[in-house]
Write the structure tokens for this entry.
Amino acid sequence: MSKMVIDFRVRPPLKSFKDHIIYASHTEEAVKADQRNFAVLRRNRGESRSAREHSVELFTQEMDAAGITHGVIMGRDAGPAYGTSSNEEIAEFCANSKGRYIGMAGVNGTNLRDAKQTIRDARKMGFVGVAFDNGWVGLHQDHPNLMGLYEAAAADNLILALTASQLMGPDSSYSHPDRLKPIAKAFPNTPLVVTHAAWPWTAHVCSLAYECPNVYMLPDCYLNTGAPGTDEYVLSANRFMSDRLLYGSAYPVRPLGTSLEYFRKLPLTTEAMEGALWKNAQ
């Protein structure tokens, strides 16, 4: 078993993440109320101290205890309702981590001028990619205004991470894999990471990966909670996608250690498990 584990989706308790909805769910009031919004992701979650106390020091200790050697921090620019992080803060944190953390800049496609500037600055700031939460800003993945931004990212050899799932948008059309296909086809040399892996369109999105070798699946919290349909990710990884499944906890949505423990018990082949835990991300 490899000593390296890369968690491809973490959001440490940095200052600009603390007010996001993903941290708000850790307050005592939210846990007691068991609000319907995202309640399924909190079920049987357990509470990590680092998320509850907003402590980077405790977060690092939990990473060490889980055996997670590296983390990919995805920035978010999704407006006041869902949160906007500071790309500058993420870049500084990663730069000071001695290679343990790798960053992706958060981009909001509703402001084209700012978005283009963010993409132009990404490499200079040390980012390896850009992350879009399009559904939460009311844009379909293949919105015409976004294609120019994707093109700019591809031109700079940046990884493109697009979040797509049932909870990311006004309705399920925002997570449909057909919205991703034109992007994968237009930029075949750009790694396209489907964050949340377009759940619950699991078989459909795996068929997209079957067709397009630049498409990577990052099911994160959905796979780590055994959500309906997630067996398709495991089946696909074992058959044709062993080099394109990525492990992610989606911390603080799910705890670091609990998520990894669940993932290791999945019926993945040795090749697919090693690929997901570190080889594919590396």
Observations:
- The longest helix spans residues 144-155.
- The two ends are 16 Å apart (CA to CA).
- The CA atoms of residues 151 and 187 lie 7 Å apart.
